[in-house]
Write a structure and sequence with these properties.
By secondary structure, the protein is of the alpha+beta class. It has five helices and five strands. It has a five-stranded antiparallel β-sheet.
């Protein structure tokens, strides 16, 4: 969390608003876009393939999401899980949302879901003792592996 908070203070604005507005999906690791929400790789991942699902609209409160935003975020969560299953073969997932700094949110002003793929034995001593995460894959490689899986129509074997 210290790493996330430090990085957050280095820039002004909200990256969950600014990056999709830039239209540079590959640069910012945006995997899929809908009308009201999108999917992006987390650049400070807990595990390889850690994704965020966020609305384009800036709001901190889950209860303020419009019905179209809530529905599309739910659909994108499903697509994200399906793409990760196909592209990375995890053994399970953590899906979660941290609302406010007190709940552990690194970006408390823009509501978003975390999709974290999990594998047996993926947690070791490094995050605890070494304050270091061991990630066996570069973000660019994860993006290249997952991006095509979001192009398949929903409900198809690849999406």
């Amino acid at each position: 969390m210290e790493y996330i908070r430090a990085a957050q203070h280095e820039t002004e604005g909200c990256f969950l608003c600014d990056e999709p507005a830039a239209g540079e999906d590959e640069r910012y690791f945006i995997l899929a876009r809908g009308d009201a929400a999108y999917v992006v790789l987390n650049i400070y991942p807990y595990n390889p393939g850690h994704l965020l699902v966020a609305p384009y609209r800036h709001t901190a409160d889950l209860e303020d999401l419009r019905d179209d935003e809530t529905l599309e975020m739910g659909r994108l969560l499903g697509r994200a899980v399906a793409a990760l299953k196909e592209g990375m073969q995890p053994h399970g997932f953590n899906l979660g949302m941290n609302l406010s700094h007190m709940a552990g949110a690194g970006i408390p002003d823009h509501v978003h879901w975390h999709v974290v793929p999990r594998w047996g034995g993926d947690t070791n001593f490094m995050p605890i003792l070494g304050e270091t995460r061991v990630l066996p894959e570069l973000l660019e490689d994860t993006y290249a592996r997952l991006r095509p899986l979001f192009d398949a129509p929903a409900g198809s074997p690849s999406g």
